[in-house]
From TrEMBL:
Keyword Transport applies: no
Signal peptide span: 1-26
Cross-referenced InterPro entries: Serpin_CS, Serpin_dom, Serpin_fam, Serpin_sf, Serpin_sf_1, Serpin_sf_2
Native species: Macaca fascicularis (Crab-eating macaque)
Any one Gene Ontology cellular component term annotated for this protein: extracellular space
Protein name as annotated: Serpin family F member 2
Chain segments carrying region Disordered: 372-426
TM ranges: none
Amino acid sequence: MALFWGLLVLSWSCLQGPSVFSPVSAMEPLGWQLTSGPNQEKVPPLTLLKLGNQVQPGAQNHTLQRLQQVLHAGSGPCLPHLLSRLCQNMGPGAFRLAARMYLQKGFPIKEDFLEQSERLFGAKPVSLTGKQEDDLANINQWVKEATEGKIPEFLSELPEDTVLLLLNAIHFQGFWRSKFDPSLTQRDSFHLDEQFTVPVEMMQARTYPLRWFMLEQPEIQVAHFPFKNNMSFVVLVPTHFEWNVSQVLANLSWDTLYPPSVWERPTKVRLPKLYLKHQMDLMATLSRLGLQELFQAPDLRGISEQSLVVSGVQHQSTLELSEVGVEAAAATSIAMSRMSLSSFSVNRPFLFFIFEDTTGLPLFVGSVRNPNPSAPRELKEQQDSPGDKDLLHSLKAGPRGDKLFGPDLKLAPPLEEDYPELGSPK
C-alpha cells in the first residue's frame, strides 16, 4: 500500500532544544546537502525535519534508526515543543504551522499513531472520498488556507493506491525593521557572470542599519537584514562568479555565519526584489540523504500492521521579497560604530538564509543564480575600472594597509574612508 508523504512549505523558524535533540546539528547537514540546484533553490531544512518527525512515531527497527541518523534526532517529542515556543516568541500572525492527515476509508491505522500525530503536530485525520477530483479539491483548499493563499494549488494528482497522506504547511511573514523606500526602487542590472546581466527591480537605501562582514576563507560577504520579529534574512555574496553551492557551504558553519560581536552600521544597500516559486519531487533528494529505504521496504508497523511504502514526497514553496519585508508565504535599539558610510550591493548570484536571531537557528536555505529567469540575458557593458581588480584587496586593507579581516573572520575597526562600492567580482 502507498503512503504519500506530502511536503509543503512556505517558510521558516525554530529554537534550540535539550540534549536529546539538537535542531542545529540536524539542520546543518540537511541544509548543506539540499541547497545545490543549478539556478535557484529554496529548501527548508526545518520542514523536512518536521515531516520526518511526523513519520518517526510509526517507524520501527532499522527504519527508525535510519530516520534518527539522518535527522540527527534521538527519541522524545522535543521538536513540537520547540516549534510551539518559537510561535510564542515571534508573536501572533508572524509564523503559522499546520499539519493534516488524509486517510483512505477503512484503512486500519493504529490509534497510538493517530493520538501522537494530533497531540504533537495537530494533524487531525480526515477521510478521503475515493474520488480523486473531490479529494484534490479538498487538499488544495486546505493548503491554500494554511498558506494564506500563497499556494493555491499544491497537488494535481494523487499516486495510485494512496491510503495515507501527510501534509505539512508553514507560513512566515517578516517585516523589515527598517523598510525600503519604494520611490528609490529602480531598474538595475544583476550580474549573472562576467559576460551577461539581467534587469531587476533593485531596492535601495543610503543609510540602512546593517550587520555585515567579510569572510576570507572562502571569500564571501555576509549581511544580516533584520526583521521586527527576532529573525534575520542573511545574504551570502561570494566575490567570485565561479562558485559551487556545495563547495561554498562545505567550508562554512552556522557559527561562522552568526558571529556574536558584529554591530549594525549605516550602510548604502542595494537588494533586488524577488519572487521565487519552486516545486519538486523530493524522493531522489531523500534517497541521496540516506532515506531510500522509505521508498522500498520500510518498517512502518507503528502506523499500521499492513505493509506501507512511501510513494511520493512533494515540495512546493514561494518566497516574495519586497520593500516591506519577506513573505513565503517591537523595534530594538541599534548600536552603531562611528564610521563613514559603507556599501553592500547584492547584484550577482548569492545564497540566503532565514535565521531565528536569539539562537542563530536556520530555518530556510536557498540560492539565487538568476532572479529574473524570464528576462533575456544582456551583454555586460564594459564599464569596470582597472581598480576593480583590486576590489577584494581594498576591502581587506584599511587606509594604512592594515588587515581588516583575518583568516576566517575579523571585524572591521572604524574606517577613515568609505568602502568602495562593490562592482563586478573576479
